[in-house]
Design goal:
Elements: H1 5-22, H2 26-38, H3 44-56, H4 60-73, H5 78-89, H6 98-115, H7 119-132, H8 137-149, H9 153-161, H10 170-183, H11 187-201, H12 204-216, H13 220-231, H14 236-239, H15 243-255, H16 259-272, H17 277-280
Helix pairs in contact: 1-2, 1-3, 1-6, 2-3, 3-4, 3-5, 4-5, 6-7, 6-8, 7-8, 8-9, 8-10, 9-10, 10-11, 10-12, 11-12, 12-13, 12-15, 13-15, 15-16
Amino acid sequence: MTPGLPVLRRIVRVQEAGLLAALGRAENAEALYARTWAEGARFAVGLDAYGALLERGGAREQALALYDSFLAEQPDNPTINVARSRLLSGRPPPPVTPAKGLARVYFALGSAIAAQGDASDAVAYLQMALRLDPELLAARAALGDALAMSGRQRDALAIYAGVPATSPYAAMTRADMAYLLQQQGRAGDAIDLLDAAYAATGARRVLLAKGDVLRAERRYAEAEAVFDQAMRTGSAQEARADWRLYFARGALRERTGRWQEAEADLKRALELSPDQPDVAN
């Protein structure tokens, strides 16, 4: 399956903007990036290149505003969080070689195909992206997801495990690993993995995954305590995504027959994210 035309058009424009930047046509590249962003393109791998272009042109405040705008919608995105932290530290954007640029093309196509539900076709694109740029950890995480969706759980676990524990993608991939381990009947291993990941990262995402695993194992009191902890943890940006926690805790309370508390949590989730179909249902 190929990506739908609107998505494909945005992918092409982002890659075209990258090529223009590489050719030294920064003004043209910036205009194309801005147009694609305005049309709704929300590709973290691509937006970081747009921000890097702004930084190199001296528009650091504009780049920071761009990163913040993206993170307001996706608070725990590792790619943009890394770019933002790097900018604030004063370090320049890393160079993009031809191989790395081509890796981003394969990554974008693979991710778009996977998003449309055809994970098995996405695998080859994502493998090629990693072959071209082994440091593109976004592609490694996406490849693990595609393999898991294709029923290749063992391969997915191996790919996820290749993400270093110190990586910005560690919390995401350890959470995904835990879900797979729980599905294999290895809930104890999943919880041990998440405890280690939380000790290393302090990430809210890890707590949410632990609560989900405990809830799936019918360990409801423990799960609720973890969700409560997650609500008290993290940055202000992460707090804006709290609908997931209220939704998870509300579903747990509904499962245990605590209807009034469940209703309050689900209403709060709806207030925080009225466009989420799961919450609306």
